[in-house]
């Protein structure tokens, strides 16, 4: 992010201690007391700014130094670089009780803007925001062309609106609306004079020429932000700044804004002939200030759209055209929401604009505000907007997923406009495979955005397919990387992992036999079907070491938690069963990225238990599938968390208490399967007598088998005795160390003790719902731990009376 030199300077600034800082402040104070504030003062202030801004916490400066910084800032003849540095340091300190500045002590608009920025950073503890607004508005009332520059004050007003929308009174709002109207519509159409002349400069050479368009033609209409020239006048700079704050001001001063009076009710005009007539017959000069500003804003946006059709001579101007189009469409959206009469004057223009830009990949970011416009106003204007959505959600993510800025803006567009989709929400939910391409390629930056968006994307009809897609997200990242490498060279190639200059799987990726799986993985819409991608996982295995794939894999557990949190709100009984089967199936079918499987297994096992708790009867309903899972487990160590959860759920919910369809035959089948699994994981080997799998799997297996003892008490007692003897043998060793061995021995001993008292064992191992209520854990006389301690004492006492 920074160069080595910059990192070194930042580190030094962060390590400066309080005593060193105090000495340095004394040096700065000494320099600021001198009459001639030269380069030494500027250099020291730069260092001081670096020190106070390099840390997250506020640095304490000597009060004398702070007072001198404030005094220097307010000097009438202080050099501008010094003023800027003093203001920057004081802003970094804010909020602070040591700051005693006031706008009354300023001598020009530049100084006022610097002081105002500090006061606004104070946090309005003494109504600084309202005070700043009053001073700035008094300066804006000045209309003298030769007066002080007002350029520095508009950013301050924009900040005031953001911090305290109600800070302006009605007459002040009207005043600023008038000034914005003048700056937007009546800026000079002649270029400004050069700032300095020379000995050989003549009066003829200094005569300003007309402003030009981005294609070099002489402008024939009013000045806008897209007008070009060598030098600009003061009112032209104000024109640019006024447009930059126009949308925020319209929202602030509009009918719904905090600074506006009760607006005329125009809702009954929407869609009527009167609305169209009023939009074309009103004379601009007769309009009130706010409506006049809206009219001028509309003309300004129309002019920007016209200017965007010109071919720019410079790339910077071409980029500016696109940015101005985005802002112009957003302003038109605000205007049409505030006054429906603008809608009919805007629709034809924006339809033509969409038709012109939809085939241009360079202008795709403009399509987002256009889509928002049609989402907002399409119904009122009787416009079928489905074609706009289809193009936006089908082609754009599939072709431009590698653009990080577009990815962020696209996902933000989806989040911000969920309330506008209404009946068209299915377009969004069915397009999740395409949206996941943004996520797969830009996962670190977009993970939080998708966590917030997933609840809107999750639908009962696509939940199973979406879960598959989330589990295959790192595989999708690898496939997108190969897809980009296989595309023809473009003028702006996206970045990929250069450590794999020629992946061995690139040619195999084009294999016709695998194209069906590749196309399924890269589909643009939900297909309603799922496919096993194991062959594709093997093909893409060389890509698993890519940094982008690893980053995507790290995001998957977080996304899975968000998915299950949302899907449980819409899941029916049948969908819950489908999800459980999917968890069992996919626990052994994941793309092998380092540490990815272990992290995902932890999430899947936790969600399996959550689904079982949500619907306990699924253990009986899916008995055959659960038995198949237990019988097909090969790598217990690799799937330990999932196996543990399945075994625990069987012991917890395989009972007539949760499902009256539970039979003795089912319990016997589960007992045999669990017994076989326990024997398999604990079978003796020449090198080790204890299990080669995590000890929690063994302890949960023993506990679950003990819960099923009403029909197999003798077998369980014998089995537990063997496990305890095995753990106590002198030659016992375990890959998990002494703690694992001790955990197995302790659990076997506890369960054997419980089996000696069947009634207590039932109370402890399979408590009734009443026993599980919070009262049993809060009341000291009925607490479950108390019962366990009592049982332990009784069993130990009985064991002590036995011979031997």
Structure description:
The relative contact order is 0.03. 63% of the residues lie in helices and 0% in strands. Helix 2 packs parallel to helix 4. The chain is built from 40 helices and no strands. The protein is globular and about 105 Å long. It has helices at 4-15, 18-33, 39-53, 63-73, 80-93, 109-121, 128-140, 154-163, 170-185, 234-244, 246-253, 273-281, 289-307, 315-338, 343-357, 364-377, 386-400, 404-416, 418-421, 425-430, 432-441, 443-457, 463-471, 473-486, 505-509, 515-521, 534-539, 547-567, 573-586, 596-614, 618-621, 623-632, 640-653, 664-682, 695-707, 713-728, 737-755, 758-765, 775-778, 784-801. It is mostly helical. Mean pLDDT is 82; it is low at 197-202, 261-284 and 686-691.
Outline of the structure:
It contains 40 helices and no strands. It has helices at residues 4-15, 18-33, 39-53, 63-73, 80-93, 109-121, 128-140, 154-163, 170-185, 234-244, 246-253, 273-281, 289-307, 315-338, 343-357, 364-377, 386-400, 404-416, 418-421, 425-430, 432-441, 443-457, 463-471, 473-486, 505-509, 515-521, 534-539, 547-567, 573-586, 596-614, 618-621, 623-632, 640-653, 664-682, 695-707, 713-728, 737-755, 758-765, 775-778, 784-801.
């Amino acid at each position: 992010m920074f160069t080595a030199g910059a990192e070194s300077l930042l580190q030094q600034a962060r390590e400066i201690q309080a005593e060193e800082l105090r000495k340095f402040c004394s040096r700065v104070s000494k320099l600021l007391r001198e009459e001639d504030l030269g380069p030494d003062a500027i250099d020291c202030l730069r260092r001081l700014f670096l020190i106070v801004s390099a840390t997250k916490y506020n640095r304490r400066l000597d009060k004398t130094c702070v007072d001198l910084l404030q005094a220097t800032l307010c000097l009438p003849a202080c050099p501008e670089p010094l003023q800027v540095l003093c203001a920057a340091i004081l802003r970094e300190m804010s909020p602070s009780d040591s700051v005693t500045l006031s706008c009354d002590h300023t001598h020009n608009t530049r100084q006022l803007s610097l002081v105002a920025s500090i006061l606004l950073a104070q946090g309005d503890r003494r109504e600084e925001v309202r005070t700043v607004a009053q001073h700035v508005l008094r300066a804006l009332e000045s209309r003298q062309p030769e007066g002080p520059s007002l350029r520095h004050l508009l950013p301050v007003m924009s900040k005031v609106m953001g911090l305290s929308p109600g800070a302006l009174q009605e007459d002040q709002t009207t005043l600023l609306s008038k000034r914005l109207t003048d700056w937007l519509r009546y800026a000079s159409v002649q270029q400004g004079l050069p700032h300095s002349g020379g000995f050989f400069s003549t009066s003829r050479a200094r005569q300003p020429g007309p402003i030009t368009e981005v294609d070099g033609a002489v402008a024939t209409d009013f000045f806008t932000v897209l007008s070009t020239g060598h030098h600009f006048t003061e009112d032209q700079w104000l024109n640019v700044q006024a447009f930059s704050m126009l949308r925020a001001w319209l929202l602030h001063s509009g009918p719904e804004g905090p600074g506006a009076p009760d607006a005329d009710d125009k809702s009954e005009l929407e869609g009527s002939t009167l609305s169209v007539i009023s939009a074309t017959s009103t004379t601009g000069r007769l309009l009130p200030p706010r409506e006049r500003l809206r009219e001028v804003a509309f003309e300004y946006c129309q002019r920007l759209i016209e200017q965007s059709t010109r071919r720019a001579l410079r790339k910077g101007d071409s980029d500016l055209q696109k940015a101005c189009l985005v802002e112009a469409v957003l302003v038109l959206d605000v205007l049409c929401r505030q006054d429906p009469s603008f809608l009919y004057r805007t629709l034809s223009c924006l339809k033509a604009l969409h038709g012109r830009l939809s085939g241009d990949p360079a202008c795709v970011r403009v399509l987002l505000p256009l889509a928002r416009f049609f989402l907002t106003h399409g119904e009122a204007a009787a416009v079928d907007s489905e074609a706009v959505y289809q193009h936006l959600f089908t082609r754009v993510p599939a072709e431009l997923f590698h653009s990080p800025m577009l990815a962020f803006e696209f996902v933000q567009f989806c989040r911000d406009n969920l309330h506008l989709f209404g009946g068209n929400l299915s377009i969004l939910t069915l397009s999740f495979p395409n949206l996941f391409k943004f996520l797969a390629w830009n996962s670190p930056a977009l993970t939080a955005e998708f966590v917030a968006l997933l609840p809107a994307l999750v639908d009962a009809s696509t939940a199973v397919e979406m879960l598959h897609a989330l589990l295959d997200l790192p595989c999708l990242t690898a496939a997108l990387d190969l897809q980009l490498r296989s595309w023809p060279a473009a003028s702006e190639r996206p970045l990929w992992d250069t450590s794999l200059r020629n992946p061995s799987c690139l040619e195999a990726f084009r294999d016709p036999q695998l194209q069906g799986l590749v196309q399924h993985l890269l589909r643009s819409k939900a297909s309603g079907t799922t496919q096993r991608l194991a062959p594709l996982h093997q093909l893409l295995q060389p890509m698993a070491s890519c940094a982008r794939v690893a980053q995507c894999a790290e995001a998957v557990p977080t996304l899975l938690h968000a998915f299950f949190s949302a899907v449980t709100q819409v899941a029916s009984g049948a969908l819950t069963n489908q999800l459980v089967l999917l968890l069992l199936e996919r626990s052994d079918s994941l793309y092998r990225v380092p540490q990815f499987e272990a992290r995902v297994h932890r999430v899947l096992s936790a969600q399996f238990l959550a689904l079982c708790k949500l619907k306990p009867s699924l253990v009986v309903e899916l008995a055959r599938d659960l038995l198949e899972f237990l019988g097909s487990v090969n790598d217990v160590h690799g799937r330990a968390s999932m196996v543990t959860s399945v075994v625990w759920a069987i012991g917890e919910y395989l009972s007539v208490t949760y499902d009256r369809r539970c039979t003795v035959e089912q319990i016997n089948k589960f007992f045999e399967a669990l017994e076989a699994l326990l024997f398999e994981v604990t079978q003796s080997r020449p090198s080790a007598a204890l299990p080669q799998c995590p000890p929690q799997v063994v302890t949960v297996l023993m506990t679950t088998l003990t819960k099923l003892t009403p029909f197999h008490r003798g077998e369980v007692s014998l089995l537990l005795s063997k496990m305890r003897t095995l753990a106590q043998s002198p030659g016992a060793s375990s890959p998990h160390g002494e703690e694992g061995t001790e955990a197995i021995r302790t659990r076997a001993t506890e369960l054997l003790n419980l089996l000696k008292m069947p009634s207590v064992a039932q109370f402890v191992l399979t408590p009734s719902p009443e026993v599980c209520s919070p009262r049993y854990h809060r009341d000291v006389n009925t607490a479950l731990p108390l019962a366990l301690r009592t049982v332990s004492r009784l069993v130990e006492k009985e064991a002590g009376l036995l011979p031997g």
